[in-house]
Each structure stands twice: as structure tokens, then as C-alpha cells.
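Course assignment 3, question 2. Fill in each field.
Student: A.L.
Task: Predict the tertiary structure for the chain below.
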Amino acid sequence: MEQYSLSAIEQEFHKTVVTSLDKTGSSGVTQWQELATLMANTVWKATNPNSKTVTEKQLLKSVENLGQTEGKTQEWVELMTDKFNKNKPFDPDLIKAIFWTLSDSLGRHAVKWLSGQEIAPSKTQKLDLPASFFGVGQTKYQIFDNTLKILSLIAEYKSILIGFDELDLPDSQRSKAGLARPQVVARLIKMIVDKLSLSKTSHGVVIVTVMMPDTWTQKVKSMPGGVPDRVSGTEKPILLQGINADAAVELIKLWLDEFYKSRKLVPPTPLYPFDEQKIRAIVAEGNSIRQMLRWCAEKFQATVSDEDKFDGKKPPKSAPKSPVEQAYQKELIALASSVDSWLDDQSKIASALQFGFKAIRGKIIKNVKVESIEAVEPKYKNKGYINFKVVGTENGTTVKIGVCVLQKSSGNSVGAALSRLIRYKTFDITRGCLVRSKEISPNAAKAQEYANELVSKLGGEWVSFEAENVKPILALFHVHQGRGDYQLTDKQIVDFAHQSRLLVDNYLIREILSAPSGQVPGNLEKE
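Answer field:
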């Protein structure tokens, strides 16, 4: 499973940049808000060089107080955008959106807009922003151009490090131009280097690409058009040396130190509960650092018991019981801190659901035995709107459920998807299932008509959901995507899902398979 689309790498790169900036930074706020604070201080320093530097939380509090009157926040954002552009001319819509990330009520909508997602027209009106950050056509060139604008702006304040890893994983697909994963990434790097515009005061950008020597010599170095020069400036890559025993011991000490400090525990030795000689022996056997750390994770629970005490405090009562659970918990934590970046990502949610249904083939849930997951044909008519088809048997009768995850706000997009979901004969389905957490705009009359026909006349279903319903499936899906990195097999992941009943008991999966209620959900999010 690819972790990005090889034929839409520009859009995937943009999404990665925006998602990264939406994560909490060192100051306890998102990195978008950190950037907005740096920009605000630039404005004030330009007016008065002796003005005090305002911290992120001070600025957030100030904007929050303004937010008691929405009009005042809008006035402040407009004023700051104008003043900023007088000193550092940038795309005014980009600057405005970044200042809006400081708003408690509209900040999340600003981040969605920056990511290129659709937001309700009423929200773009309040933000005073165009319908889309990517422009009307949303071509890959417009998308990439806006990504470069963001990077250029950040570089005015901070040095940027961009890393590309896992280029050596097997390709399950090729780009439309027939390029493999490392070649697609190499071309992207060339585009960044060639087109990124940096000022004389910029802090610069460093691009680090990690790959095996054979990948470099056989796939990248031979690429035409100066690609190798951009990937490695000297055309002489830096060879990474395997970790030695001393470095391995120090690394584990560092990780354990962070672990114990976060739990206010004091271990008897910096390596507790591990033996230094055992760690050195593992490294001497030629194991990689990843294999060694995996060994540590597996042995931690067995070594540290609830009865062990040191300095009057017990070590943690629970640790991941298996490598899969450890990876799953890690992905859950990451998802919990970035809900707004994926809750409306209908493509990602659909892919996770498809993975989940494939993992429960043969299971009987809500009287439906899941037999297979199929693509929706004919593709030229579907155009990707119905994501997949769940085929099964219910009381001896074949059921074919067309699943459409639809989080977009545009009435045209919603109408186009629903117009397909109600065409049972065309797409060989016996039931249509709309997966959507939000209302359909009252102004989208045709979409409303289709939704009513689906639910009231055709025996279809509209399944609403919340983040907590999707998070477990998405976390397991991410573990599966990164199974090479986690050194897990498909069987291990599926076994974990079955043993934990993570999928068969999931609300969203059960609702999709359950008998339709014949009603529109009452817990829908307002647009």
C-alpha cells in the first residue's frame, strides 16, 4: 500500500507540509500559530523597533478577547495582513489565512482552507478568502506553487529541514509516467530546488533524502535533466555507518531518560531494566538499530513487573503487549493530535474502511457475512465517487453495499456523488451507503433530493460518524501502511485486529452493515 499517490505527489507533498504545521510545536501551540506569532511580531517591530516581543500564548489570549466580537477579529486580521504585506510582500490570502489560525472559532477552518480542503461558503465569507487556496482549476502546478509560498514564508523565520525516507520499499504502483517511488521523489526534489524562491534574509532549506546505495546508483543517478545534482549537490552521497555498541547504549539511555522523567520515576540505573552487556551483544550480532529497539520493546513488559520498586515508586503498570499494539498506540496518539487534518479527508477514511472490511472477510456482523471487497464498475461512470463495494450474504441473499465516504461541502460535489449512489443497476449494488458526518447544505436542492431518495425510497443508509469512530480503523490502517518500517507482517496486524475485536466491534463498520434505519441521522455536524 502506497503512503502517497505517485501520480499526485504535488498534492500529497502539500498535504504533508500543512499537516506538519498543524502539529503542536515547542511552545505548546500549533506551528501555524507559532508562524502567525512570528509574523505579528514582524509587523509590530517594523512600526516600533523597541516594541516587546509577544509570545504565542499571549497573542492567542489577545485574539481570543477580540473574538468576543467577531467583527473586531476580522478587522484585526485585515489590518495585520495589510501591514505585513507592506514590509514583506507575500500572497495576501496566504498571510490572511495564517493570521486566522489564531482564532478560536475560525482557526480550524483556516487550516482546512490552507490544506486545500473545501469549507462551507459561509466560512470562506467570514474569513474573506477565495473558495479554494488552490484556485479554480486546482491544477498540480497551482498546488505546488502554493506549497512553495508556504515554505518560502517559513524560511524567512526558521531554517527548514525536509526529509524523504522509505524510498526503497517495493512499489505497488507506478506513476503515470512509469516512474518508481524514488524517481518520483527525486523529481519532486528537483522541482523544489529549482522553483523555491528564497530572499537574501532567508534561513534556508535543507533537503535530506535517505536511500540504499543501489537505489541511488540504479534508479536516481541515471535520471536525466540534472535530477541527481539536485538530490545530492556534490553527486557524492553521504554514507551512513551502522550504529556501534556505544552509540546504541547511549540512545537507549536517552529514550529511557525521557520515559522515566515524563512519569516522574527514578530508575536504579540509566539503562533499567536492561543489561548493558546484552545490548552490546545484540549490536555485535549485526542487528540493526530498529531490530534492537524492537527487542527492547518486547522485553520491557517481561522484565519490569508491578512488584518491582525503586525509590519508592512503581514503574508503569502497563506497556504494549505486542509490537502491533505498540505501533497501534503510537498511531492513535498521532491521530488524536491532528483530528482536524484527517476528519474531512474522505479519501483517507475510505481507504481505511476498505482495509478494515478486507481484514474481516469471512466474519458475520449484523447478520451479514462479509465475502469480498470489490471495485465499483464501470469506472468511467463512477469516477471514483463510490469508493468500494462490500459483497456478502444476509439470510441467504446476496447483498452488495456501495460505500461512499463524502465529507466535501460543495453542493455540486455532494450532488455528483449521491447521483451515482442511487443508481443501483448501473453500478450493480443492492444498497447505497453514504458515510458523512455533516449536513448537506440547504441550498443544495438536488443533493438533498438524492439523499432523500437514497434513504426513504431505495432502502439506502446514511451513516454519520465522529472522530472516535474512525480513529481505531485509521490507526490500524496506518500501522499496515508502515508495516515495513514497523517490521510487521500482514498476518500479525490482522491477528491483532481479530484478537482485540477492534474491527468487528467498530461502530462505523457495524452501521454500514446493519439494516438501514430509513432516516437521516440526527447527530450531523452543521456546515
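Instructor remarks: Residues 304-320 have pLDDT under 50 and may be disordered. Residues 341-513 form one domain.
Grade: pending
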